[in-house]
Amino acid sequence: MKPLFEDKGLLIESNRVPEYPIDSLFIRRWSPRAFDPSPIDNDTLKILFEAARWSMSCFNEQPWLFAYASDRKDLELYLSLLSEGNQKWAINAPVLGFIFARRRFTHNNKPNAWAAFDSGAAWMALTMQARMLGLYTHGMGGFHRDKVYTALGVPEMDYEVMCAFAVGRYGDRNSLPEDIKKREIPSNRKPLMDMMIKGAK
């Protein structure tokens, strides 16, 4: 294992090695579970969402909707919507949120088959901007989907909830439950050739 980078005096170790020379930002992006609970100021959060705002989308529809919490009362609500396993570590995240994708195009009310794809692009933009600012994100699929719409006042007929997410500074991995701490390491990737087809297969 090699030290990947240093954060708050801690060496984050990983076996990540790119096959081709890419910007180190892509290698240093990972999804930790150890978050520092110190607040993220409103201007910084607006920068993250501004980055997402400029993402590409089909017909420039911009179908994404970000709902987020950054104060104690709202954080308690958002935390309660997560699965029990995610609650164990997300309780320390200073920002929790959900990403929704609008189901239909606004210009013709037809189903938008690309809404999830485009919302994922917006999430990637937010995530990379977070790393540029020294912050981390963690997307989550474990949450109570049936409760999210009512709790946050987002109409299910108009939007599909895509994922939950956490944002914050890196915290103390030793504060994590033992079973979670074992997984607190940047994951590797499949070989490049396993995800590529040139021409016809």
Question: How are the SSEs placed, and which strands pair?
Answer:
Layout lengths: L1 E6 L2 E5 L9 H5 L6 E2 L5 H12 L10 E6 L2 H9 L3 H7 L4 E8 L12 H18 L3 E5 L4 H8 L6 E12 L7 H4 L20
Antiparallel strand pairs: 1-2, 3-7, 4-5, 5-7, 6-7
Helix pairs in contact: 2-5
Structural summary, described in words:
With 201 residues, the protein is an alpha+beta fold. Helix content is 31%, strand content 22%. The strands form 2 sheets. Strands 3, 4, 5, 6 and 7 form a 5-stranded antiparallel sheet that branches. The chain has a two-stranded antiparallel ribbon with strand order 1-2. α2 packs across α5. The protein is globular. The mean pLDDT is 93.
* Beta-strand residue fraction: 15-25%
* Quaternary structure state of the chains depicted: single chain
Kindly report how far apart the N and C termini lie: 36 Å
Largest sheet properties: 5 strands, antiparallel
Tell the overall outline.
globular
Count of runs of 4 or more consecutive helical residues: 7
Low-pLDDT ranges: none
Structural class: alpha+beta
How do the helices and strands follow one another from N- to C-terminus? Answer: EEHEHEHHEHEHEH
| Amount of helix | 25-40%
Rg of Cα set: 18 Å
Overall mean confidence score, pLDDT: 93
**Strands, count:** 7
Describe, in short, the structure shown.
The protein has seven helices and seven strands. The chain is α+β, with helices and mostly antiparallel strands.
